[in-house]
Amino acid sequence: MGRLQYVWRSSLAAAHSFLRPPVEQVCRALLGSWVNVLLLCVPAGLALNYKSGPALATFVVNLLAAVGLLGLGDLAQECITSQVGTLYGALLYISTSNLMQMVSSIVLLAQDQLNMLRLSLIGSLLANILLLPALSILYAAFCRRDMAHDYYITKDHTLLLLLAVSSFLIPTVLDKTTVLPTACNAAVSRLVSVFLMLTYGAYFSFQLSTYRDQFSHFTRERNERADKLLISIRVASAIFVVTTALFYFCVDSVVNSLQELERDDGMGIGAFTGFILIPILNCDVAAVEQAGRSMDLMLMYTIGKCIQSALLVAPFLIVVSWGIGMVDLNLSFDLWMVSILFMSVYAVNTMVARQSFDW
Question: Sodium/calcium exchanger membrane region domain: from which residue to which, for each copy (predicted)?
Fold first, then answer.
């Protein structure tokens, strides 16, 4: 009997010593930001969704839960990039900069919410082209007087962004001005999508090899914040995977509650959610933080995120819809929205050409 008690106590002590460090690291991550208070909405939102709670309450709670998950996921990503080196950290950061937009877009595609999906794609581009640079310039104006940037660094990004947005014009104009069958328009969009994805692959390789110094400076500042938390790469990776999975279910609950609201109460908030709320979720304050130090990094961040949305996210969704036999999704958007997007890109190109910013 005494032998069994000794083995039992030894097993408990070993389990305690093994589990204590990861538990402490998770606690430090959860207490690392006040935004994590919104994580309390995650179980409540999922319970409301699967218990068929009120649609409006389900929508609000899951939307707040998604905001909290975004903050925790970004913190976990910082901890990962701080331990894998500058090159792989930059690779991970660039490749996951639009991960949440990709997740929300896949949810909308699975729910057959194509109109909301198109609105979210255009809204995300406009938010990163107009909203984030405007907030960044406003923040930089309070931090320092000199807001100059290197035009030769940002010129390549702005021109590529203009090319990426122009690629939306061909399928849109072809769809609006011709009477071709839907299958023909879908074929044109698929061909353009493959070309855009190949273009982004070349741009991605060029970006890593050419602007490594800039990314080294950016990842070093993120690493300084992450190193204070003392979170291992395994725990950070587990947190990142869990938050991404929970974000998928929260966005799925948001879409389901939207459908119920529009069906029962006739509340037309689907367009507002697709064009405003989902794009705001995809915005990251990292660009605003960088504006206080370097306008070059701010422009590379915001414009690079737009380029990834236009050259990778949207074409990838077209290819996915092609694979599942869905012909209704293509690169044809509302002509008025595409015009606004094109004028916004032109305005950014004009602003960048001045090589400095002011009020």
Answer: 82-208
| pTM (predicted TM-score) | 0.79
Q: Where are the alpha helices (DSSP H) in 211-294?
A: 212-227, 233-264, 270-272, 278-282, 286-291
**Residue 115: how many other CB atoms lie within 10 Å:** 13
Token representation of residue 263: 């069906």
Tens digit of pLDDT for each residue in 152-193?
767 777 888 888 888 888 788 877 777 767 667 778 888 888
Neighbour-count burial of 353, counting CB atoms closer than 10 A to its CB (0-12 exposed, 13-18 middle, 19+ buried): exposed
Q: Which residues of 231-246 are buried (b: 16+ CB within 10 A; e: fewer)?
A: beeebbeebbeebbeb
Q: Which amino acid is at 29?
A: A
Structure tokens at 131: 């909203």
Backbone angles phi, psi at 150, to 5 degrees: -85, 110
Q: Which two tokens mark 291?
A: 């504006």
Which among 66, 74, 24 has a CA at the least distance from the CA of 222? 74
Joined tokens for residue 260? 């119920």
Amino acid type, 289: E
Domain boundaries, the chain: 32-353
Residue 154 CA to residue 302 CA, distance in Å, equals 11
Give tens-digit pLDDT for 52-77: 778 888 888 988 888 888 888 888 87
Distance of CA 327 to the CA centre of its chain: 26
Give Cα 27 distance to the centre of its chain. Answer: 25
356 has which bridge partners?
A: 148
